[in-house]
Every structure is written in structure tokens, then in C-alpha cells.
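Human: If only I could read C-alpha cells as easily as an amino acid sequence. Take your time, and here it is.
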Amino acid sequence: MNMEPEEIKKLVKEKYGRIAGQSGIQMDTGDCCTTSDCCSGVDYAIFSESYDKLEGYNPDADMGLGCGIPTEFARIKEGDTVLDLGSGAGNDCFVARALVGQSGRVIGLDMTESMIEKARNNATRLGYENVEFVLGDIENMPLEDNTADVIVSNCVLNLVPDKTKAFEEIFRVLKPGAHLSVSDVVLQGRLPKKLKEAAELYAGCISGAIRLDEYLKLMEETGLINIKLQKVKIITVPDEIFLQYIDKTELSRYKESEEGVASITVYAEKPA
């Protein structure tokens, strides 16, 4: 089902608006797709990783929507200004705050009003004065050039319709010599249409995911340098899910290939 960019954004906002009304990681993971008919039985939690041992972690801010822990690899230093793209209820922002200390600053950007409200309420309750949440679109950020020392994002950029524009905006708001570390969902190889549909049903919001090589090429074309894969996690879709779409011979052929779905964490720098 092909949709216009504004239709995709509208559906994503509606979905995350509903999720914002739920409580932390107890959220209903059965509502994860960007199409109205693809969400039955979805298990988005297969991507998420445990934050509970990280300083700054607050369960009320963890909606279980991530596919990595980008702050773990982001080389955040005390005094840095960190920007989290698609900040949700504030989970990665609060972990980043523990790393930047009182002299640093953390900005969370999200396009869903109810998520911004939830994140601000969490920050107020925790007494954090150097964390702010801004309503805005990743493709057109309401932020000044050269704002951030570090940009993080957790399983959000795959949902952005215009990924070229998103990376151009990331480049713009990074300070010269600054860097990013983002976790995201990508496809490996050219996943056949039937298999991609099956993976979307099982794994939730991968409908906007692109191939890993395309993802890295986009970053390079934007002007980012020193691009490095920091972590790759292959997502295993159960055979019984695929066998609803393909036969055993096709499944065997797929398993012998290098195609599939993966979550990655990737690092890159803006030239000094």
C-alpha cells in the first residue's frame, strides 16, 4: 500500500498519540504499523533492549519502542548538548542527561503533541531543568544551525518518509566536528515483497525501512564522514509467520540467502 508522505506522518502521529496514553513499557505492542490493516499480533518488543541498569533510566519514560541503545555508543561527554530525534516520553534524553551532567543540555524533538506533553511531565516530575522537549519534524527541525555536539535517535528515522531531507537536517544542526549515533531498522539484501510484508506483520514498524547499503549511502551523500556500524542485530522472524506467505521451498531458499531484517546502531561525524 503506497501512501503519500503526509499520510504516513498522520498515521504515525495517530499511532504514537495512542501509545502516549499508555504507561511505560506496559504499552500494548499490538499497534505498531503505519497502515491500518497490518497490526494484528505484532511483536515490536523483539527489537527493544533493556535500559534498567543505565544511570538516568526512568521506567515511566520507556515505552519499549526502541531497537537499540544509541546513548551506549554515542561518546557523550560532560557539558555536551545532545539532541534526541523522535524522543517519545524522554527515555534516551534522561539517560543522556546523566552523561552530560549539570553543565550539559539535552533537547528532545518529537512531532507528536501528546508525546511531548508526556516527556515534559516526566522531566518536571524528575526536577530536570537542563532537559527540554521541542515539538517539530525531523525533516524540518525548528532548531538553529550547529546546535548539537551529539545527535541520537532510536528506531525513528526508518519512519521518516524523506530520509534524504532528514539527514540533511541532521547535518545542519550538528556542530562542525560533532557526531551522531543512531539506532534504526534496516533491510539486508533485497527482501522479496511477500517476505517483507510478513516481517512487517511480525515486527511492527519496519514499513519505512530501507536497505542497509542505501542507508549508509544516504549518510555519505549528505556529507557525513567516518561512518561506522557500531552494532548489528539480526531479527529472527518465526518460520510459521513466513509460511503463511510462502512455501517451505521458498523459506529454505530465503534462509540460505543473506536477506533479512536487522536493527543497527551507526556512528558518523560532521567534518570539522
Summary: The domain at 5-269 is CATH 3.40.50.150 (Rossmann fold). The helical segments are 5-20, 91-100, 113-126, 163-173, 193-203, 212-222, 239-242, 248-256.
